[in-house]
Design brief:
The structure is a single chain. This protein is mainly alpha-helical and 67 residues long. Helix content is 76%, strand content 6%. The protein has two helices and two strands. It has helices at 8-29, 35-63, and strands at 2-3, 65-66. A two-stranded antiparallel ribbon has the order 1-2. The relative contact order is 0.23.
């Protein structure tokens, strides 16, 4: 098992990026906004969440140690 120690602000950033991705995915599935606007905003939020998660995961993997 791998273990990593993370500072609280980094955990907050991780949570925020996951939230952006989730919000984007939810908008893609919602019916209250026009299809064009929903797709544009949904994909933007989803991709920001996804792209900002990649460097965070790489940083955590570097910091983690095998227990």
């Amino acid at each position: 098992m791998r273990q990593a120690t993370l500072p609280i602000p980094e955990v907050g950033i991780i949570a925020a990026t996951r939230g952006l991705g989730g919000a984007g995915a939810a908008l893609l599935l919602a019916d209250r906004v026009s299809k064009e606007n929903r797709k544009r905003v949904g994909w933007t939020l989803f991709l920001i969440g996804l792209l900002s998660t990649v460097p965070l995961v790489m940083d955590i993997v570097k910091k983690s140690e095998t227990v």
